[in-house]
Amino acid sequence: MKRYFAMSAIGSVAVTAVGADSEQAVSDLIPKLADPKVENRYGAQMALQEMASNASKPGSGASREALGKILAAKAADGSVPQPARVWIVRQLENMGGAEAVGALTKVMNGEDAELRECARRALEKNSAPAATAPLRAALEKASDATWRIGLMNSLGQRGDAGSVKLMAAGLGDAKTAPAAALALGNIANAAAVEALWSALNRTPEAGEALILVANQMKAKGDAAAATAIYERVAKEAKSKSLRAAAEFGLKPPEAAQAPAEKKGRKKAEKKQ
Amino acid sequence: MGMQGHSRITRRSFLKRAAGVGAAAAFPTIVPSSVFGQNAPSNRLGIGHIGMGLMMGSHLNKMVRADDAQVVAVCDVDRGRLEKAKATVENGYAKRSPSGTFKGCGAHHEFEELLARDDVDVVFVATPDHWHAPISVMAMRHGKDVYVQKPMTLTIKEGRIMSDTARQYGRILQVGSQQRSERAFRRAVQIVRNGLIGKVHTIYTSLGEFPPPQTLPEEAIPDGFDYDRWLGPTPWYPYNAKRVKGDYGGGWRCFWDYGARKNGDWGAHHFDIIQWALGMDDSGPVEFIPKGYEGTEYQTHIYADGTKVLRNHPVKNGQMIQFIGEKGEVLVSRGDRLETTPAELKDTDLGPEKETLSDVPPGYKGVWVYVSNAHEENFIECVKTRKQPICPAEIGHRTATVCHLNGIAERLKRPLKWDPVKEEIVGDAEASRWMDRARRAPYIYI
Predict the structure, then answer these.
(1) Which of A17, A235, B174, B263 has a CB 3.0–4.6 Å from the CB of B406, allowing a cystine?
(2) Are A94 and B430 in contact (CB under 8 A)?
């Protein structure tokens, strides 16, 4: 098995990214990642980052998974100092797969706010389909608006059709409506479109999301469905910007130029 | 230590604030026309400025002096900067006002409020890189035209969204790659594009280096500074002044969370000129090799035709960019420095230079290069005429993509292959994750 060696910039910690040494190498870095003198953590951070990067080079599937398991275990281990866990979860955001989903779920559902947010982002970027369900489960029970916004965005980025009802409910809350609309725009299925129509002139982002959906449909060759959305937005949206965007969508590609408009303002002069 | 509570105002709750500042939005204070020469208020563009740090000073001063625009609002997450910016605007108009006084520039803590103003037609965005795309996209969707600092984006995906948004919403967007509006760079591009040095095979460019990013101890957040909002969609770190400092020598520019370090900071200037010179404004390189990889002495990116760009390879005569062709060389820098080999090439008559020309003059026989002699003025002119400016969103996106791909290769310490047609990283799943970044709630806009 190949060994990859990474040298940190400070502290000269030599680590191997693959093989039996890997767990020990990670364990050796943990105290440095949580050094009480914060400035001293940098070298260990870079060493771990390089391990993670080396382990996930193209063609390194087995080593990526192996290191992913090690990092996942450390991330979920409450006895590992919090600063070290944060940095570990950030590496899993960059290279974690199915092997990390369980641990990241545990961290996301934990008490530490910073770790929870890091774990949410790591699940959002995780390569495994299994990473979606924990995000959806978290949204189902989430009450804090900011947390819900983050979860909605993560699920939208993952294109989770199973979350549409949750997003639709989010459209009804002024705090979460924009994020819900954006997420539905990314999911872009029929149910998402239906939910967005209900919010068209209540939440500006709903119209923007409908435009995004139509663009995606058009790109996939479903011109009829796209046209139906553009036409309805052009007709029903109160926003001049949205109507212009919809009209642009209706143009054939060769005619798609920025519409000319007169620039000027009709405001009465106010005397000083 | 740890994150602050996320009880921050969400972007839609600005509606409540807007009601509070509704008086300003509904009845904007108009500077009398006598200040603007012949330009009545109805002919003037309403300007909003967002991000009142290092780069905004020159933009703000120019717009305050402009006869065809009025700065109606400024925005910053730092109260001190915001108040100073407001005072700069009001003092500027006061000096030109018959009464000697002027009050009425809006001052907003949150950009959402500024973008909700009906009297803002155009926004200048000069925040750190990680806010460029969210603010610009929202501005365009609100019907505003945008001048945004370079590099245009933090991620490749943001760039595609920005370019598509500009086109879909019919907005004019100029990226602040102002070297495109400098004579020497334009002539260098003209010389290369017209084949006067033959096929270019190698390009050297000097970007310099930043110190490495540091892990910083927590400090008290200064009063009046909204650090949470400054971080925005980027990951949480405890506050430290070095992290947020606007500094040409480092500060936030050192950190990968907020930009692509030197690849973004100066790469957005010089890689942009190189893209322009090679006729690659709608495309890009296909391979990126970081410094140090298997002995690579200089960070290199390579175009499909084999043309190589070497970062920080020494450039002759202290110049900024050196194009080496089969039949000659062009060296160019700011300060109107241009040298060619053969020397007489730089004086070759290559067409009209006396005015801004975005359209090819009739009968012109060479390869046309957009002529702009003043970057902000070109933007304002294009806002009025609805013609494309010299550095629109698609060009800014392609240039920023070069910056980001070099940055990703540097971080991962391995080469990348890029498909500029599909806009995909080829065969590297981990690197592909870096095409975009997960965002911190509640600052999620795109």
Answers:
(1) B263
(2) yes
CB contact under 8 A, A93 and B10: no
SS3 A221: coil
pLDDT digits (tens, 9 = 90+) for B296-313: 999 999 999 999 999 999
| pLDDT score, position B239 | 97
Enumerate the CATH 1.25.10.10 domain ranges in chain A, comma separated.
140-251
Which residues on chain B are in Cβ contact (under 8 Å) with A178?
10-12, 445
Output the pLDDT for position B364. Answer: 77
- For tokens 């105290």, name the residue: A31
Name the minimum distance, in Å, from the CA of A12 to any CA of chain B.
16
What band does B355 get if pLDDT is binned at 50, 70 and 90? Answer: low
Interface of B with A in 104-143 (CB under 8 A): 119, 121, 141-143
pLDDT tens-digit profile of A214-227?
999 999 999 999 99
Question: How many alpha carbons fall within 13 Å on the CB side of residue B147?
Answer: 29
User: Parallel, antiparallel, or unpaired for β B416-419 and B287-289?
Assistant: antiparallel
Q: State the nearest Cα–Cα gap between B138 and chain A, in angstroms.
A: 10
CATH code for the structural domain at A140-251 = 1.25.10.10
**Nearest by Cα to B251 from B260, B241, B239:** B241
Residues of A in contact with B11 (CB under 8 A): 178
**Per-residue confidence (pLDDT) for residue A19, from 0 to 100:** 65
pLDDT of A257 over the 80 cut: no
Task: Give residues with Cβ within 8 angstroms of A154, minimum separation 6.
Answer: A120, A121, A123, A124, A135, B438
Say if the Cβ atoms of A241 and B235 lie within 8 Å: no
Instruction: Give the one of B8, B412, B427 whose C-beta lies nearest to A53's C-beta.
Output: B412
CB count in 10 Å sphere of residue B31 = 27
**Two tokens at B431?**
């690197």
Instruction: Look at phi and psi of residue B427 and say left if phi exceeds 0, alpha if psi is from -120 to 50, else beta.
Output: left
Among A94, A241, A261, beta carbon nearest to B141? A241
Q: What ipTM is given for this predicted complex?
A: 0.89
pTM value is 0.91
Provide the token pair at B66. 């402009």
Q: CB-CB: which of B32, B102, B444 is closest to A179?
A: B444
Alpha carbon separation from A245 to A9, A259, B162, B167 (Å, rounded) = 50, 10, 14, 9
pLDDT value at B35 more than 90: no
Greatest extent of chain A over all pairs of C-alpha atoms, in Å: 80
- Residue A203 has, within 13 A of its CA and on its CB side, a CA count of 28
Question: What confidence tier does B56 reach under pLDDT thresholds 50, 70, 90?
Answer: confident
Q: Rounded distance, CA B57 to CA B390, Å?
A: 22
Query: Best mutation site among A149, A215, A254 for testing chain B: the one with the most B CBs within 10 Å?
Result: A149
